[in-house]
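Dear colleague,

Following up on yesterday's call, I've attached the two folding results inline so they're easy to grep. Please treat them as preliminary; we haven't cross-checked anything against experimental data yet. The first protein's sequence and structure tokens come first.
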Amino acid sequence: MQKNNSQLLPNLDLDLLVSYLDWEEPLDAIWDFKKRRKKEEERRKK
């Protein structure tokens, strides 16, 4: 079923998001998570 690494990432992200949801401020945690992920993607493009 696994085509490449990008196919695996969504599952990883879900696990991370679930753990983030346990935080006291889940919305802030998710927002921070998305911002950090965007930075990583931009870094990979370079």
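Below is the second protein, in the same order (sequence, then structure):
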Amino acid sequence: MTEAIITIRIIKNFEYRTVKNLVLQNIKLDIMTIGELKKIIIEKINVTPAFKLFRNVDYDTLKIYMKAHRSKTQNLIINLDNDEWILNDENASLSSCNIENETELSFFNREAYEAYKSHPDVMKWE
């Protein structure tokens, strides 16, 4: 059984670059599914005081941001390349989705992501 530490980048808003990290430990990659991971993340958002301002977003999508010891994307908010890294299969195990120890995942609203992807240079805080 493979256990891992995974960092979840919870993205509230793309244009304002509002992101907060959630570190999950002892995640069983062979057993846990994408759907189960989403439920755990939403539960953590709802009960952790640090995420109070992040509770008004309908989070529905996970995407691999980067894997350990590999190059990072130039975009600091989300990996706009590799849309095949979006984890759509709720019943797939994490290991079958090539998630490894110290992988970083982004958790966000898909509709907001698609809008941001069409104009990634728009930043509202500038």
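For the second protein, one point worth flagging: DSSP finds two helices and five strands in the chain.

Best wishes,
A.L.
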